[in-house]
């Protein structure tokens, strides 16, 4: 699909189509986790070709709650739309949890994510009262229900004429073992999923084998630092056979450390210790001040000439 860039009239590639192009290439797709508009702006400023909206980060930042299925479709869609449209040329992969209900709700999720500009989304086989994939005590639905979610998502995509990339995630590795997890992913691919996502991979042997067994379908690696999966570099992940590498904690973990340290400094010393170079203007430039000034100036305004 294509869309029109209103600023110059040129036809721009839809983000989902761009993501499919990246998947067809030889390089691994590296998508750092972003949890809000500010972290997304920073990632865009560093020139990443793809972003990942973490569900756990969205729950923590938007709701101040743990990742226990508390975020609704509206919570996630609203967040994803904001991030996806900061730069529509950079594909956003977004967590879509379980699809938020039965087939009709899954179809609605795909429709809303598509209209919000999301390039790819993953739907999992946990029960509705889900939890973060790196917590214990998970429960999954039957293979039939999981496949019905993927089938509903694929049908919605076809109805829309959308290129949105469907990623099937299974959490069955921890509950039913490796063979059952692979069986579920194969069934999901047959039902229309584009990418497979085995959550909670625990070893290089598992990683290499799942990529081999599901080839030529691309497989995504969830690189959660200090979680169930060992830490691998992009080069190592590519060698194992993965095509997409997401880093959900890449922004929110260091943000926690930095924010807590600053707040402690204020409490204990009365000073924040913030770098003097980080001025209000520096902050606003990160989040698009120059672009906003350019829009105003092009329209004949002069309100922001002195910012």
UniProtKB/TrEMBL annotation:
<comment type="similarity">
    <text>Belongs to the isocitrate lyase/PEP mutase superfamily.</text>
</comment>
<protein>
    <recommendedName>
        <fullName>Methylisocitrate lyase</fullName>
    </recommendedName>
</protein>
<dbReference type="InterPro" id="IPR015813">
    <property type="entry name" value="Pyrv/PenolPyrv_kinase-like_dom"/>
</dbReference>
<dbReference type="InterPro" id="IPR040442">
    <property type="entry name" value="Pyrv_kinase-like_dom_sf"/>
</dbReference>
<dbReference type="InterPro" id="IPR039556">
    <property type="entry name" value="ICL/PEPM"/>
</dbReference>
<dbReference type="GO" id="GO:0046421">
    <property type="term" value="F:methylisocitrate lyase activity"/>
</dbReference>
<dbReference type="Pfam" id="PF13714">
    <property type="entry name" value="PEP_mutase"/>
</dbReference>
<dbReference type="InterPro" id="IPR018523">
    <property type="entry name" value="Isocitrate_lyase_ph_CS"/>
</dbReference>
């Amino acid at each position: 699909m294509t869309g029109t860039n209103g600023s110059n009239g040129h036809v721009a590639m839809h983000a989902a189509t761009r993501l499919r192009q990246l998947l067809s290439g030889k390089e691994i797709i590296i998508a750092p986790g972003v949890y809000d508009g500010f972290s997304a702006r920073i990632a865009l400023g560093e020139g990443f070709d793809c972003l990942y909206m973490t569900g756990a980060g969205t729950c923590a930042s938007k709701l101040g709650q743990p990742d226990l299925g508390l975020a609704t479709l509206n919570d996630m869609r609203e967040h994803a739309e904001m991030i996806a449209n900061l730069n529509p040329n950079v594909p956003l992969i977004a967590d879509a949890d379980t699809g938020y209900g039965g087939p009709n709700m899954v179809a609605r999720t795909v429709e809303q994510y598509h209209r919000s500009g999301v390039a790819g989304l993953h739907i999992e086989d946990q029960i509705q009262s889900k939890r973060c994939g790196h917590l214990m005590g998970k429960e999954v639905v039957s293979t039939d229900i999981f496949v019905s979610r993927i089938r509903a998502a694929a049908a919605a995509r076809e109805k829309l004429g959308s290129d949105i990339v469907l990623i099937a995630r299974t959490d069955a590795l921890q509950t039913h073992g490796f063979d059952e997890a692979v069986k579920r992913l194969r069934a999901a691919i047959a039902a229309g999923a584009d990418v497979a996502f085995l959550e909670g991979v625990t070893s290089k042997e598992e990683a290499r084998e799942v990529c081999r067994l599901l080839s030529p379908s691309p497989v995504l690696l969830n690189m959660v630092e200090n979680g169930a999966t060992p830490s691998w570099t992009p080069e190592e992940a590519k060698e194992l056979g993965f095509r997409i590498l997401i880093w959900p904690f890449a922004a929110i973990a260091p943000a926690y450390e930095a924010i807590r340290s600053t707040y402690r400094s204020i409490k204990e010393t009365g000073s924040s210790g913030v770098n003097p170079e980080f001025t209000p203007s520096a902050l606003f430039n990160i989040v698009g001040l120059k672009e906003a000034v350019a829009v105003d100036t092009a329209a004949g305004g002069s309100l922001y000439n002195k910012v």
